[in-house]
Amino acid sequence: MDAVNTSGKRKTAIARAVVKEGTGKVTINKIPLEVYSPELARLKIQEPLGLAAEKASKVDISVNVQGGGVMGQAEAIRTAITRGLIDFFKDDELEAMFRSYDRSFVINDTRRKLPKNPLGHGARAKRQKSYR
């Protein structure tokens, strides 16, 4: 079977995953997942691999990710890996299992940063008033 290309997004992070037959190696920007830091991001990325362990051990996954912060990248990677596994194995039960565990595994999170407002320092913050 050929390789499958998928992508995942979160905020401004974009992850592109290539899934092909192999021995269960996962690399992120050419860094093995085992040494990827920080640990919290690594654990988030490993979630779909743990849920579909027997299928994930039959494929090699290579992910390129850019933009955003550490956790935004981790969630984008997670979505890209999940979609890659679903497309590679063409398995509806696998997709249903991922969706029931956490919908953001399969679907990009559309939430974005709010624009800054003219009346304050950020999106929600306003200048303080003093009446004294």
- Treating each run of at least 4 consecutive H or I residues as one helix, how many helices? 4
- State which percent range the strand residues make up: 15-25%
Mean of residue pLDDT values: 92
- For the largest sheet, list the strands in their spatial order: 1-2-5-3-4
Determine Rg (CA atoms, Å).
18 Å
Determine the N-to-C terminus distance.
74 Å
Q: Which descriptor suits the 3D outline?
A: elongated
What level of helicity do the residues show?
25-40%
Describe the biggest sheet? Answer: 5 strands, mixed
H/E topology pattern? EEEEHHEHH
The total count of strands amounts to 5
Which class best fits the helix and strand makeup? alpha+beta
Low-confidence stretches: none
Question: Could you describe the 3D structure shown?
Answer:
- The chain is of the alpha+beta class and 132 residues long.
- The protein is 36% helix and 22% strand.
- The chain has helices spanning 39-51, 53-56, 70-89, 92-101; strands at residues 4-10, 13-21, 26-28, 31-32, 59-66.
- It has a five-stranded mixed beta sheet.
- A hairpin with a 2-residue loop joins strand 1 and strand 2 (13-21).
Brief digest:
With 132 residues, the protein is α+β, with helices and mostly antiparallel strands. The protein contains 4 helices and 5 strands. It is elongated, with a radius of gyration of 18 Å.
Descriptive terms for the model:
132 residues; alpha+beta; five-stranded mixed sheet; 4 helices; 5 strands; elongated
Set down the secondary structure blueprint.
Blueprint: E1 4-10, E2 13-21, E3 26-28, E4 31-32, H1 39-51, H2 53-56, E5 59-66, H3 70-89, H4 92-101
Parallel strand pairs: 3-5
Antiparallel strand pairs: 1-2, 2-5, 3-4
